[in-house]
Specification:
The chain is α/β, with parallel strands linked by helices and 280 residues long. Strands 3-2-1-4-5-7-6 form a seven-stranded mixed β-sheet. The protein has helices spanning 5-28, 37-45, 62-71, 84-94, 131-140, 160-172, 190-199, 219-229, 232-238, 243-257; strands spanning 52-56, 76-81, 100-104, 116-122, 142-153, 203-218, 266-279. Strand 2, helix 4 and strand 3 (100-104) form a beta-alpha-beta unit. The chain has a domain at 5-155 and 183-213 and 271-279: Rossmann fold (3-Layer(aba) Sandwich). The chain contains ten helices and seven strands. Helix 1 runs parallel beside helix 4 and helix 6 packs antiparallel against helix 10. The protein is globular. The two termini are 38 Å apart. 43% of the residues lie in helices and 23% in strands.
Length: 280
């Protein structure tokens, strides 16, 4: 089946509209594991009072909120996302603020009447089917002296929280993800991330690699939360497995996480993150 970027985007919007509140509660709002990168990203960009900032693919507003605190009353912040539910969650979480707006938009097709000092994009570049188009849009909407900040997950083997389950699930359900879907780790090395951003015309590119730790509890906690938080289309595919196959899947995942299981039976995953900064 040929990959259809339009259908892929529609599917992603449907999924994020469903999972955004759960994602916010479990991840974005708690500053643990990979979301410790938010402060690091803002620090690397040297966000100052009075800056104008666009937070692309803002999700439920974790980066947007911290940027707003940094730029103060003289600054201006816009958060943009394809998921209306995510934006509603962000607005409710952050609360009414002056000089803060949200827009429902597509990363590959956006433009503003005024250019920004800084544009951020945390954990989203890998989702864009045409990452080059999104990056070139970013470039157009930055001032000549503007800065770009991007955060992505590291290579698959460097983020076993995802990989331990995904590798197992795809053995039992080969079409778990639509054929041709962009991989979460497509920019998971310094070289691949730099290459993509340089190709779009950015300069003075710096990529920092940081390894955070994340503890999802025991194996049973990890497995139960996966089943609880997974999006409906994926949950339906898991539901097609019979009892025996489901047990085999769970046992495979259990084996995959053994290298990360401590003596107290809790799991401690390393989580590699890449933070890129660049000049327009």
């Amino acid at each position: 089946m040929k990959f259809d970027p339009t259908e892929y985007k529609k599917r992603n919007i449907t999924i994020w509209n469903e999972v955004a509140p759960r994602y916010h509660k479990r991840w974005a709002s708690i500053n643990q594991g990979p979301f410790q990168s938010t402060s690091k990203l803002i620090q690397c960009l040297d966000v100052n009072k009075g800056d104008s900032v666009f937070d692309l693919a803002c999700g439920t507003g974790v980066v947007t909120k911290k940027i707003k605190q940094k730029v103060g009353s003289m600054g201006y912040v816009v958060g943009g996302d394809t998921s209306i539910t995510a934006i509603k969650t962000a607005k409710k979480w952050i609360g009414a603020q002056t000089n803060l707006d949200f827009v429902n938009m597509d990363a590959e097709n956006f433009s503003f009447s005024k250019q920004f000092d800084i544009i951020t994009c945390q954990y989203a570049l890998f989702f864009f089917p045409n990452a080059q188009k999104a990056l070139k849009n970013i470039k157009k909407n930055l001032k000549k002296t503007g800065k770009l900040g991007i955060t992505v997950h590291g290579a698959a083997e460097k983020v076993p929280f995802f990989n331990s389950i995904f590798d197992a699930v795809t053995k039992f359900i080969p079409d778990y993800a639509p054929p041709g879907s962009p991989d979460l780790d497509r920019f998971g090395t310094k070289t691949s991330l730099k290459k993509e951003v340089r190709k779009a015309g950015f300069s003075k590119i710096i990529v920092k690699k940081i390894v955070f730790k994340f503890n999802p509890g025991t194996f049973e906690d990890y497995w139960r939360n996966y089943l609880r938080y997974v999006a409906k289309p994926l949950k339906e595919k898991l539901g097609t497995l019979d009892r025996i196959k489901r047990k085999e899947l769970k046992d495979t995942v259990r084996e995959n996480v053994k290298p990360y299981t401590l003596k107290n039976k809790n799991i401690e995953f390393p989580w590699e993150v890449l933070i890129l900064t660049a000049k327009n």
